[in-house]
Design a protein that fits this description.
This protein is of the alpha/beta class. It has 14 helices and 14 strands.
């Protein structure tokens, strides 16, 4: 059992929507963290049928309770009509709700009651480094950070099941896509762009669908929290900058499976891509869990010079390399960025175990970087 960083009790000044991809551990967390809460599991088919037949049962069940009452409704998108009753119960009695689900898309798409500011969104992520004692870097880079996948001896089998059952069948079952064959092809092509700039026209050509359809597919991945787009840092000083966003799947293990990357070893290009993805994944989770206002972006010039992560308005510039020794040639992107943003804090994150100064830059061993990140020492 992992001790998760996210503390739902600190979020319960009011009601919350808790969203996160399937199997990240939301239900386990909630059952453990809010032990005295009223727990309604809509994955239970009998309970789901009951509330679908008469959503007002929820009001009858809870009317008269006060603000000391916390109610968890797991998989609220399964019975979205319950949100009208939730609205009534919050307004009349001040009851606090944790409304859990893997996606808000179903609620937004059909115009269901999203409570008009009476509940704010929180997001749950796969495991992060600070939650795993004696973290194994190579295991994390290969298996990903899902609670079931990270410790597995054969993560590929679990990842195959996850992709086939959730990313394909469940998305189809929710009527998010009409043509599953096209969507499967899109997933394969989208995986090739993992950590790269998104070119909708090129992806559409490779998939045999329109650019509009590709944009919709990417929107589905984001709304179901299966992927993220990272915007380009576009504050232009001298050099022309790329404007297109980058895309990352929510977990490096999922990206590895879709790309048929297995048994990744240090020193290879494939390991380098996966290593970068893993570090970006940690930064995304940190920003999400701490409600940090600093935006994550990346920076790339038209000549191909780049920095993997820019935090806020150039507060930090982070380059990620899976090298065992940081050399001057690895600092080119940071040096170029500093020419235009001299007040930035430049950091290169790597597998070089000796954290040190490199002139004006910091070279941080990845474990030191992650420790500092989760201790709030970076931003």
């Amino acid at each position: 059992m992992y001790q998760r960083i996210f503390d739902i009790n600190k979020e319960l000044d009011m009601s919350v929507f808790l969203f996160g991809a399937r199997q990240t551990g939301k239900s386990t967390l909630l059952r453990k963290a809010v032990s005295k809460a009223v727990y309604i599991d809509l994955l239970d088919s009998d309970i789901r049928k009951l509330y679908r037949k008469r959503p007002a049962y929820l009001y009858d069940q809870l009317a008269g309770k006060d603000s000391s009452c916390v109610v968890i409704i797991d998989e609220i998108p399964e019975v979205p009509d319950l949100l009208n009753e939730v609205h009534r119960l919050i307004s009349e009695f001040g009851i606090r709700f944790v409304l859990c689900g893997s996606s808000a898309r179903k609620l937004k798409r059909k115009g269901y009651n999203t409570l008009g500011g009476r509940a704010f969104p929180c997001y749950f992520y796969p495991l992060v480094s600070a939650e795993i004692p004696d973290l194994d870097i190579d295991r994390a880079v290969n298996n990903g950070m899902m609670p079931l996948h990270y410790p597995a001896k054969n993560a590929t089998r679990l990842l195959a099941s996850y992709v086939d059952v959730y990313l394909k069948e469940e998305i189809q079952a929710q009527a998010l896509v009409r043509d599953l064959d096209n969507f499967e092809r899109f997933l394969e092509v989208a995986a090739l762009t993992d950590g790269e700039m998104v070119n909708y026209a090129n992806i559409a050509s490779d998939c045999g669908v329109s650019a509009k359809t590709v944009k919709e597919y990417f929107s589905i991945l984001q709304d179901t929290l299966v992927g993220y787009t990272i915007p380009a840092y576009t504050k232009v000083m001298k050099r022309r900058l790329m404007q297109a966003p980058r895309f990352y799947f929510f977990d490096v293990g999922v990206a590895n499976y879709l790309l048929h990357r297995q048994n990744l070893v240090r020193g290879t290009v494939e390991f380098g891509h996966a290593f970068e993805h893993w570090v970006i994944q940690e930064i995304i989770a940190y920003i999400g869990y701490t409600h940090n206002e600093n935006r994550l972006s990346y920076w790339r010039t038209y000549t191909g010079i780049e920095v993997d992560a820019v935090i806020g308005d150039a507060r930090l510039a982070i380059e990620i390399k899976s090298v065992a020794e940081v050399l001057p040639k690895h600092l080119t992107g940071l040096k170029t960025f500093m020419e235009e943003h001299p007040d930035t804090r430049p950091i290169i994150v790597s597998l070089d175990r000796i954290s040190r100064r490199c002139g004006e830059m910091e070279s941080l061993y990845v474990m030191d970087f992650l420790r500092m990140l989760w201790a709030g020492e970076l931003f």
